[in-house]
Amino acid sequence: MRDLLRQRIIGLACGYEDANDAARLAGDPLHKLAVGRDPITGAPLASQPTLSRVHRDSVLARRVRTPRRKHSPETPRMNATVTGEGNEG
């Protein structure tokens, strides 16, 4: 998991906003070195589907851990009503 996190952070730092380039970068010697693997003989880095699953699972886990705020009866709700008045132009 540590290597996956490192790979993702390094990708973000290098300007890769999403994991789409993971397949191309999996064998990149500089990325492997930055993650802590041998640039020549080290195992390839994670694939795009693996990074996407880790991201998705972490987002889902955060949603499960974070309780949703419920509307309290003391807090008024904002209700928007759309009318045709005032739209002359």
Q: What's the number of extended β-strand segments?
A: 0
**Count of the domains:** 1
Poorly predicted regions: none
Count of discrete alpha- or pi-helical segments spanning 4 or more residues? 4
- β-sheet strand percentage: under 5%
**First and last CA, distance:** 59 Å
Task: Briefly characterize the structure.
By secondary structure, the chain is mainly α.
Structure in words:
The protein has 89 residues and is mainly alpha-helical. It has one domain (2-65). It has four helices and no strands. Helix 1 (2-13) crosses helix 3. The mean pLDDT is 76.
Q: What key phrases describe this protein's structure?
A:
89 residues; mainly alpha; 0% strand; 46% helix; elongated
Mind sketching the topology for me?
Blueprint: H1 2-13, H2 22-25, H3 29-35, H4 48-65
